[in-house]
Amino acid sequence: LFLLLLSACCYVKMRNHTPVTEFLLMGIPHTQGLEHVLFVFFLAFYLLTLVGNLLILLATLTSSNLHTPMYFFLGNLSVFDIFFPSVSSPKMMLYLLGQSRTISYQGCACQLFFYHFLGCTECFLYTVMAYDRFAAICHPLRYTAIMNPRVCAILTLSTWMGSSVHASVLTFLVFKLPYCGPKEVGNFFCDISVVLPLACADTSLAQTVSFTNVGVVALLCFLLVLTSYTRIVISILRISSSEGRHRAFSTCSAHLTSVLLFYGPVVLIYLQPASSTWLESVVPLFNNIVTPSLNPLIYSLRNKDVKLALRKVLIQGVYT
Q1: Which residues contact 80 (CB under 8 A, 6 or more apart)?
Q2: What is the pLDDT of residue 8?
Q3: Sign for the pseudo-dihedral over CA of 22, 28, 29, 34
């Protein structure tokens, strides 16, 4: 009898540790019955993101007036703003239409990798753009020498390589752990905070490294951006004419607005007094879908060069 009970326990234990081959995306909590409304909302923002950033990219590529470091980095930002919402939006819109909510183990790992790769790249890119504005306003006479094409290429490649290492480390730590059930992911896409609790092993190392890694990268980039804009504000205040101060501030106001939209939701998550599942789902949704769709509007509304280039692109498109 003892041997039979032992065999039964071993069988149950082996059955309970069957590797998970797919996960189930639970979506945004407390939105049951609103699937079609949410689908229309997300589809509108996703199309706006694709069209807006594609127009900005075409404008920076075709207009010779925009072949400067500032617009080179803006073109890179548009590329990442096209891909960033594409990590989670298509799958989310499919299950809002009634399709399967399941995502394969490999698909979940890919979502996590590209989410952190693209997100970290944007974080680095905002920092590089802040340095570019610092060089343009604080050292205008040496700007072309400081931000020469070689430096721009090195900075861009460095953001890609650094983000790739960052995302690879996080993905390896999360998915080297065994997953044997449950398999319900409490969000609309796979991220560290919702995948790690599903592991059937000690997750302390992965939690510590991922939290430290993400926190250090975000905090370091934010401090560098803050330092750049502190120097920029000091330089602008030293300009004697009000017209000169206004012109100098207008060149970096769009970037500053994008930085605030990017970091605002992140600060909201980390500074909330108590954990909120709904808030932890809505804030990434804002970063994933809403912010990338607003960047083309932010950079075009207050920038005459971009508006002129966009007008030329649209006229050529209609003519063609």
Answers
A1: 118, 121, 122, 125
A2: 37
A3: negative
Please report, for the domain that includes residue 120, its CATH number.
Answer: 1.20.1070.10
Q: Is the pLDDT of residue 303 over 80?
A: no
Q: What is the C-alpha separation between 66 and 46, in angstroms, rounded?
A: 26
Report the range of poorest mean pLDDT among 127-131, 153-157, 308-312: 308-312
**Residue 24, domain member (yes or no):** no
Q: Residue 227: which residues within 8 A CB-CB, separation 6 or more?
A: none
- Tell whether 15 is covered by a domain: no
Residue 103, beta-bridge partner list: 23
Interatomic CA distance for residues 214 and 224, integer angstroms: 16
Report which residue type is found at 187.
Answer: N
Q: Is residue 3 part of a domain?
A: no
At residue 18, the pLDDT reads: 62
Using DSSP's 3-state secondary structure scheme, residue 143 falls into helix
Give the structural domain span for 123: 29-319
What's the pTM value of the predicted model, to 2 decimals? 0.85
In a domain, 8, yes or no: no
- 261: tokens are 């939209």
pLDDT digits (tens, 9 = 90+) for 29-57: 777 778 888 889 889 999 999 998 998 88
Residue that has been written with the tokens 């400081």 in this structure: 146
Distance (Å, whole) CA 307 – CA 5:
76
Pairwise CA distance, residues 261 & 297, whole Å:
13
**Buried-state track 122-139, b at ≥16 Cβ within 10 A, e below 16:** bbbbbbbbbbbbbbbbbe
Angstrom distances, CA of residue 104 to CA of 21, 22, 110, 170: 6, 4, 10, 18
Other CB atoms within 10 A of residue 169 CB: 14
The number of domains in the chain is 1
The CA distance from 92 to 108, in Å, is 13
